[in-house]
Design brief:
The protein is an alpha/beta fold. It has a six-stranded mixed sheet. It has a three-stranded mixed sheet with strand order 1-3-2. The protein contains 15 helices and nine strands. It is found in: Mitochondrion outer membrane. It comes from Morella rubra. This is ATPase family AAA domain-containing protein 1-A.
Amino acid sequence: MLGILIIYCEPIPLKHLTEGLKATKRSDNNEIYKLFNNVLCICPPKEEELLRTFNKQVEEDRRIVITRSNLNELHKVLEEHELSCMDLLQLNTDGVILTKMKAEKIVGWAKNYYLSYCQLPLVKGERLYLPRESPLTDNLWQNIAKDEYESNFISAVVAPSEIGVKFDDIGALEDVKKALNELVILPMRRPELFSHGNLLRPCKGILLFGPPGTGKTLLAKALATEVGANFISITGSTLTSKWFGDAEKLTKALFSFASKLSPVIIFVDEVDSLLGARGGAFEHEATRRMRNEFMAAWDGLRTKDSQRILILGATNRPFDLDDAVIRRLPRRIYVDLPDAENRVKILRIFLSQENLEPDFQFDKLAYATEGYSGSDLKNLCIAAAYRPVQELLEEEKQVGPSVAYDAASMNELRKWNEQYGEGGSRRKSPFGFGD
């Protein structure tokens, strides 16, 4: 029997797609249902693992649709201005929905930026070709750095594409990720929303503190990828020098170099070692002067309110920080040890690509690891992954040879091989008549 299959899609908001599919009852007021005798309702799976896969697929389809729309807008704007972009289809536009106005701003900025830094622009057939990636290489970073002090921070600049860690790779800390999204990601991506008034000005300092191994540094890496902004990672050795006065010059050069890369995030891991409390008995004068210069350049008399530089610090000992530093870090986010629910999420991410038993109980393992940090759970999974390898090596040691080397039968076989076998040492009689 031949028939016609008609697929009908209701125009519901995309963000309510999953919730809308959960509704099993159809509306009788919709006239479209009167055209069909049989109506099939497609519902999302009820199992947690299958539902998670279903939601990921819906989100992936949403990302593909938005990416195609963004690339279409960019292509239209490029054609209107007689421009072309090499490898436009490989352009990453995740996390943004481009309108025509936004696409025109992006194309205009890319054109001006390319013409400013490229020594020999690529022109074919009276059409300017823009590269997909920024031509900002190490040599161009060197052109931005005005002196040797700013050049010291070129190696500290981390490109978001080089990190490879996203918020989805972190199984827990949903509240922390939400706070970072509101405090960092949104002001970086939508600065026009925070340009009016004084209360909505972006935060200039955020502190991540908590026990070791809870994912503070991992959050900073994921934040650099999610924001897509320039990211400078510094430590105490970055701002120290054996020459008197160079520490202050390096500190001043850090902020002058960062202002040229604005918007930028300066990440200070173990911030207590760099900006600890002043006035200690063993504090060196050069260290104190460097801290004073750092805080003056960070939020001092000469600091501009429009300067889009964020200091992101991470520490296990927040009580060792200087009081002036704490004041400049108005948002202090506590990264606590994961609870049982979050430990389940972390374990699912760690074991997502491993071969597990069909009835593996994540809940039971999560309750048995009370007090474990994310790093502890990872080390536990690694130790468990090595167990089969260790057991195999032990079993191989226990399996002995089936025949002893000096057995009587082996000696007889060797003698027979010497006399009659091809591997023996007896001389073969030569053919022919001889001498």
